[in-house]
């Protein structure tokens, strides 16, 4: 089966040449220490910066017309700092190439934003803004979703609701590539891309990755059954 996403991208020195592929409906978690290149990789896959080639659904991203792009690929940045005094329903509608009030209302309901629909987005809490911006990213039903820390600033219930909804989206064939820090959620994904110092150093299933020595080396922690414990060898490396 031909992958939905095929890419070879780079942005030296922040991101070495990275070759990846993603199948339709696949959920990929992108992890790594701070500064490892997660955001840079997502921005390169979105065609925002970097060099290389990105193909989605057999179409070269650079050749996709602006009007068609929202149906093919959507990128949600990590920043929730929105300064526009635009109503939430209009923010969601910005994700559509053509008006579709029914789709906007559906997302307002799914993300429980109905009571906030007419409130300016810059008057919302950070978590509420995160949900509204996710709605914008989902609006056009893109074939590929690139999400940078979409779970940040969400309370535990909304972390689970968001992951449940994204699972439904993936079941409809949308591929999801998501950067995240909450390693306890890795089991919700099909594969994990682990980055370190601007390089993709591992592509494994969550279970295989968490049990690997490479994970302990990169993150300097190990799972201990109830959470995480510092990797003793990493502490020795950082000692004077």
Automatic annotation (TrEMBL):
PANTHER family: ABC TRANSPORTER ATP-BINDING PROTEIN (PTHR42794:SF2), HEMIN IMPORT ATP-BINDING PROTEIN HMUV (PTHR42794). This is Iron complex transport system ATP-binding protein. Keywords: ATP-binding, Nucleotide-binding. InterPro entries: AAA+_ATPase, ABC_transporter-like_ATP-bd, P-loop_NTPase. Residues 4-222 form the ABC transporter domain. Coiled coil: none annotated. The keyword Nucleotide-binding applies. GO terms for molecular function: ATP binding; ATP hydrolysis activity. Gene3D superfamilies: P-loop containing nucleotide triphosphate hydrolases. It comes from the Bacteria. SMART domains: AAA.
């Amino acid at each position: 089966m031909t992958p939905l996403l095929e890419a070879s991208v780079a942005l030296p020195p922040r991101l070495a040449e990275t070759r990846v592929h993603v199948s339709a409906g696949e959920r990929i978690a992108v992890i790594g220490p701070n500064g490892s290149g997660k955001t840079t990789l997502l921005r390169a896959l979105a065609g925002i910066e970097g060099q290389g080639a990105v193909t989605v659904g057999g179409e070269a991203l650079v050749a996709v017309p602006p009007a068609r792009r929202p149906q093919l690929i959507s990128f949600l940045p990590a920043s929730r700092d929105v300064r526009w005094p635009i109503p939430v329903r209009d923010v969601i509608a910005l994700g559509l190439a053509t008006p579709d009030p029914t789709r906007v209302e559906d997302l307002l309901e799914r993300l429980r934003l109905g009571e906030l629909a007419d409130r300016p987005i810059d008057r919302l809490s950070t978590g509420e803004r995160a949900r509204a911006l996710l709605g914008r990213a989902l609006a056009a039903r893109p074939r590929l979703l690139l999400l940078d820390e979409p779970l940040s600033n969400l309370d535990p219930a909304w972390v689970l609701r968001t992951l449940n909804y994204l699972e439904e989206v993936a079941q409809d064939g949308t591929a999801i590539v998501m950067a995240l820090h909450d390693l306890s959620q890795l089991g919700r994904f099909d594969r994990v891309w682990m980055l370190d110092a601007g390089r993709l150093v591992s592509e494994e299933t969550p279970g295989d990755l968490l049990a690997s020595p490479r994970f302990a080396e990169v993150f300097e922690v190990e799972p201990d059954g109830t959470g995480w414990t510092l990797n003793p060898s990493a502490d020795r490396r950082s000692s004077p």
